[in-house]
Amino acid sequence: MELHVFRTSSAFPFTSIAKHSLLSKSHFPISLSSFNFSDIPQFSFKVESQKRNPAKNDVVFDDAAYEAERHRLDAEARKAMAETSEMETQNQEDPKAWKWVIRKRVWDLMEAQNIAQFPRPVHHRIPNFLGASVAADKLSELEEFKVAKCVKVNPDTPQKQVRFLTLNGGKQLLTPQPRLRTGFFSVLEASMLSAGTIKEACTSAGVAKYGRPIGLEEKIKVDLIVIGSVAVDPKTGARLGKGEGFAELEYGMLRYMGAIDDSTPVVTSVHDEQLVDDIPIDKLLIHDVPVDIICTPTRIIFTNTPIPKPQGIYWEKLSPEKLSQIRILRQLKSKIEKEIGQKLPTGPSEKLPPTAQRRR
């Protein structure tokens, strides 16, 4: 059988975006003011291994090349976030400075107590932790998980077992490509996989190999959202991610698609040492996504969060510099502007960290 070799680009094209009722609302509210995405147009990998994806016209997939490129880009992104955290922490007037203080405290604690698991160090990551699989098993015991037909799960390592339990339970798995570099979301189902590939499909490379990429026009209903966290308050449901804002961006996009609403449960799985009590609700930004349920290796916590969930995308909070780094949002913004016949607002200009500036 003839082998095909191809080169994939940094993002799947979105050729059409369906109109949504949120168009009538104010600017698709979701604040991206704290996001620090990297636009890396050179992201590509040559696909020429002997492994085939039967769902994609028998095209072969080079796992090693994909992983090498992913690790390189992740390292660049973490370096940029380290620069951002240092810059924002030094500016006490920055509304995001306090978040970095809590994140660093948790990351340092996990490393010091050897709670952290591979990949390490956990700084500037959604940290993998000892007992992540146990927390995932507890999550699978939730009635919200049992009745869900489609579960959106973040692509980070500590939630790998959640992705496996989703597919193994016959549910549809919706997961984003890491840092949204190769597209938007991918959909996977057990029927698309063999018994020997289901575990592989729970990895980043496996999602790229076996998943079906979708665009913003996809008609899909998500019954449960699982997100990773650096720190979370069990009394309020207030959550901090690693600081790039991908969970918020993904949430806002799903709101745009009509895939979720305020009633869609948001769950996180963390170590007990990631539970904190000093996230001030009054300092949270409008885009911050609260969690309804927390699963740790030892317990399940229902937060009854009073924090409102984001309603969409807040364009007036998104700086020109940030917008220039996020291809999907540029495409979406252009599409909406054509549909409504007017320009959407843009947030104030901002100073980017040196690494981010070099990427522009």
UniProtKB/TrEMBL annotation:
SUPFAM superfamilies reported in the protein's UniProt record: NagB/RpiA/CoA transferase-like
Superkingdom of source: Eukaryota
Gene3D superfamilies, per the entry: NagB/RpiA/CoA transferase-like (3.40.50.10420)
Region ranges (Disordered): 339-360
Pfam families per the UniProt record, alphabetical: 5-FTHF_cyc-lig
Protein name: 5-formyltetrahydrofolate cyclo-ligase-like protein COG0212
Organism: Datura stramonium
